[in-house]
Specification:
The chain is of the alpha/beta class. It has 4 helices and 6 strands, in the order E-H-E-H-E-H-E-E-E-H. The protein is globular.
């Protein structure tokens, strides 16, 4: 098992890509903390993983909201003691972001900078 005893956080786990990544990570031995904007779809993935004897928890998290991401990462660290893997499977959403600009209109660099630098880098490199 490639990911035995690893702690993985997956953003966008309710979608097609995220759900498959979550299942594969769990199959390889990781405990997966799943998040997405719509809890029922994320919980469905977590239930399937648990039914297959995996470890999974689901949460509703808007990955475009920095405070929500930070709070979720803090919660995972509090529960699991650490985070080994962060995987973003979140697809672009047509929502207002960055001074009213829909995410589909953000340039790639700005989207990545917002998504990762402000939210995840703080938690991964300062804890």
């Amino acid at each position: 098992m490639l990911l035995q005893d690893k702690i993985a956080v997956i953003f966008g786990a309710g979608g097609a890509v995220g759900s498959q990544v979550a299942r594969e990570f769990a199959h390889e031995g990781a405990a997966v903390f799943l998040s997405g904007r719509h809890l029922p779809s994320v919980e469905k993935v977590a239930q399937a993983i648990r039914a297959d004897n995996g470890t999974a928890q689901a949460a509703e998290v808007d990955a475009l909201a920095e405070q929500a991401v930070n709070a979720y990462l803090d919660q995972v660290v509090q529960q699991a003691g650490r985070i080994d893997i962060v995987f973003n499977a979140m697809g672009p959403q047509v929502v207002e972001y960055d001074n009213g600009i829909p995410t589909l209109q953000l340039c790639y660099e700005k989207f990545i900078m917002k998504m990762f630098t402000q939210s995840l880098e703080k938690k991964l490199f300062t804890n």
